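Batch manifest, entry 17 of 40.
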Amino acid sequence: MDIKLIAFDLDGTLLTNDKHISPRTRRALASAAEHGIELVPATGRSFAGVLEEVRFLAGVHYIITTNGAAIYTPAGELVREKIIDRKTAVEILRRSDRRRAIAAAYIAGRGYMETGDLPRTMEIGLRAEVLHYYKTTRELVPDLAEFIEMQENDIQLLTFAVDKNDRFTHEAITSLAKNYDGANLVFGSPHDMDISNSEARKGIALQYIAERLGIERTQIAAIGDSANDIDMLRIAGLSIAMENGDNAVKNSAKIIAPSNNDDGAAIIIEKILSVGCSKSGQPAKGLIGF
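Output type: structure tokens
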């Protein structure tokens, strides 16, 4: 089989909307691992926010976190990190309009947000499952900027949760990020605006892992749904977007899979295992048409 590595986003891709791996997807992943395929979760989440049921899947030896800012082993060993310095992060936080956005910082694999922001989650149009995600994956601090100033480690990611229809705040944060050389802004979801080091990208991290493992780009399949997945799809020989994904992601992919709630990732993995890819790295005939 030509595909030796499958990279996959988590939220909106591998996980259902209730943030679990479906039984069919679990079986497909186990089968891929049995065939010797390297499995690489690639997420905007912090390392601490990656579910244990994902971290300890057979076939997973590297995990891309925080949109590519940090690569970890399942046991939590840091393999590669691209950061933004604390001074820059604090300056961005203090210049942002926090009345219309909820900020968080990822430091050394953990996520932090202000205690007072948690009750505001629903006020800016975020869903109940997002609030649950915040409660279960982020630690609360009184003042985020002051907390960052006291840390020894620099910042893997700054993220702002914004109402997806609030164009004013989207434009303000985008403009703010452009003031800092070496900073990159990407949408982790329709409501997540993520600022990180310009070299903190899923595609760069995926290429790093592939080279470390001696795997060619034509031997990589990548599956995603959001803007932060596009450069990862461009690295892969076989690129797959989810039906529930952004149009820009679909336009960047060779194949559109069914949605995350319809076992789209599992269906793709099953097709890869049953059909494979042509020697040129293009999808084989049996993979086209769904």
